[in-house]
Amino acid sequence: MTAFYIKSFLFILGSCLGSFCNVLIHRSTSENPKDQSILGRSRCPHCGYFINPKDLIPLISFLILRGRCRSCGHTLTGRYWIVELILGLVSMQLYPLVLFGDAIGFVLWMTLSMGLVTLFFTDYEKGLLPDMIQIPLFLFFWIGTAWIDPYPFSRMSTGLISAVLGWCLIWFLSRLYFIFRHQEGFGGGDGKMLAWIGVFYEWRSMLGIFFLATILGTLWGILLKIQRKGPWNMELPFGSLLAVSAAIMALWGDRLGRFYLESVIS
Ligand SMILES: [Zn+2]
């Protein structure tokens, strides 16, 4: 029974953090200066109406209002609800960490999930991977992962080496693409994102995440081409692909690694 209460609490906590991610997604990509402060009160993105605290309950308010603004009736994107649900479920999945009293582990994994979900949507919706989200993630993971490591200084140096490797990989491919195609293959945010992913996952898994993202991107491009929705060289949000790949690596990384070793190398 206690497990049920803890899991319910974790779900509510996660959905509240999801609500915060929605604020980050909107404000870090907004062109309206009034919306750019993280601490300001929540407003309807359409009419600017200050949202009542009673309409800010994660998941529930959206359903009660049927996804509309109480003031102007403008339909809000279903993303608000999806982000709150995903982070609620992720938080519940981290129950074993709570059970074993690993508070720092919980905070690290939850922050990773929030970062991935937030950047998935900022890149997917606006083509942006804002520094105001990525730089704090980099610093937080650099210190946090070393904090729980038995060899903190060695972990800090491998984290930094992985970050530099990730950033250089994107920079190098971007230059190469420019030489051959005379256009930018990656945005500046992609390199920073792979850098902090490198800090969290270390370089081997980071390279796995990068290759998985390119495979997913190729499949997505082929799918769009079949549906005749764009030219071959159309831009795909690589940050969103990195976010999905990093989530796959966190969930099934061990199995993917074994599959790779068994089928490709041997
Ligand atoms: Zn409104």
pLDDT averaged over residues: 91
Q: H/E order of the elements?
A: HHHHHHHHH
Tell how many strands the DSSP assignment holds. 0
Distance between the termini: 48 Å
- Describe the sheet with the most strands: none
Portion in strands: under 5%
| Total count of helical runs of at least 4 residues | 9
Unreliable runs, pLDDT <50, ≥5 residues? none
Radius of gyration: 20 Å
**Secondary-structure content class:** mainly alpha
Number of domains: 2
What small molecules are bound in this structure? zinc ion
The share of residues in helices is over 70%
Q: What overall form do the CA principal axes indicate?
A: globular
Explain this structure to me?
With 266 residues, the chain is mainly α. The protein folds into two domains: 1-101, no CATH class; 102-266, no CATH class. Helix content is 72%, strand content 0%. It has nine helices and no strands. It has helices spanning 2-29, 60-64, 79-93, 95-99, 103-126, 131-147, 152-181, 188-226, 238-265. Helix 6 (131-147) crosses helix 8, helix 7 (152-181) packs across helix 8 and helix 8 (188-226) packs across helix 9. The protein is globular, with a radius of gyration of 20 Å. The mean pLDDT is 91. The structure holds zinc ion (ZN).
